[in-house]
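pls design
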């Protein structure tokens, strides 16, 4: 029976990252699963065990998220998350090909790693999996609302983010996150939706520090990495998005698939932003396809 082991690593600038690993250490491919903004590695729980039958699987909570250390205000940037990923790979997968799979902020982290560490990326990455993410910041994010209304909401959101960023390691009160559950359900999920998935997502949000919730917002909104994707070496790649995704709508996935050499695009009818929970079988099958293709390429090489 496959077990999931818990561990911690300490980054060079001090924060601790909480990791989960599964699968054989000698597997031909290591899969690293990166979670979304204000979430944590548990959102991938339905993919871990199926993947561990064929690969070594690593998930970790990004700084300021889940069970990892709180984030300092100056380090709540995509630049820093890209550097963190490079450090995680050196610590937990120092050799052999890796498949990087990123949901939302996790996908943006992968792009930042590719931008800031191109030689490492070219040498190590054997496959890519982008799930409900964007390479264009908040350019296409209108929350499923008329653009004029979305513009007002974004202005209020940016102001609120500045205030939250000053609150550092404080975390939302449980009562507040429970009150936000209907809003999270509307914003993050499509149809159908399992209440247990909304509960898991709400618990993850409750663990994120207020400094993370607000601190990462400017960096996320300003991201622009289509040129980085277009310059990447060709590896097995898949891009998935929900038809009803209000945060990273299908146009975001289309632009990634067009920029990324050889990427396969899947748009899931009726689904929202939390695809790994809403359509676990579709996500797992697509991810296994990338893993197997990466392992094949490695064997041939």
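designed seq:
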């Amino acid at each position: 029976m496959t077990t999931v082991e818990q561990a911690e690593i300490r980054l060079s600038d001090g924060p601790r990252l909480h990791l989960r690993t599964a699968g054989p250490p000698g597997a031909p491919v290591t899969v690293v699963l990166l979670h979304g903004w204000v979430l944590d590695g548990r959102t991938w729980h339905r993919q871990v065990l199926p993947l561990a039958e064929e690969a070594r699987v690593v998930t970790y909570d990004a700084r300021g998220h889940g069970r990892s250390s709180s984030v300092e205000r100056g380090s709540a940037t995509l630049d820093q998350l890209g550097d963190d990923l490079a450090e995680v790979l050196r610590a937990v997968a120092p050799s052999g090909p890796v498949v990087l799979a990123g949901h939302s902020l996790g996908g943006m982290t992968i792009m930042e790693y590719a931008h800031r560490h191109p030689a490492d990326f070219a040498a190590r990455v054997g496959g890519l999996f982008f799930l409900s993410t964007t390479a264009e910041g908040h350019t296409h994010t209108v929350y499923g609302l008329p653009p004029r209304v979305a513009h007002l909401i974004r202005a209020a959101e940016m102001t609120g983010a500045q205030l939250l960023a000053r609150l550092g390691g404080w975390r939302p009160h449980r009562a507040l996150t429970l009150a936000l559950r209907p809003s999270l359900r509307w914003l993050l999920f499509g149809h159908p939706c399992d209440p247990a998935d909304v509960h898991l997502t709400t618990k993850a949000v409750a663990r994120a520090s207020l400094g993370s919730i607000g601190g990462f917002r400017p960096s996320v909104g300003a991201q622009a990495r289509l040129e980085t994707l277009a310059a990447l070496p060709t590896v097995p790649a898949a891009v998935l998005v929900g038809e009803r995704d209000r945060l990273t709508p299908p146009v975001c996935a289309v632009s990634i698939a067009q920029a990324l050499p050889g990427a396969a695009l899947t748009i899931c009818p009726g689904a929202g932003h939390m695809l790994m929970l809403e359509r676990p079988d579709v996500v797992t099958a697509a991810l296994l396809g990338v893993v197997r293709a990466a392992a094949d390429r490695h064997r041939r090489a």
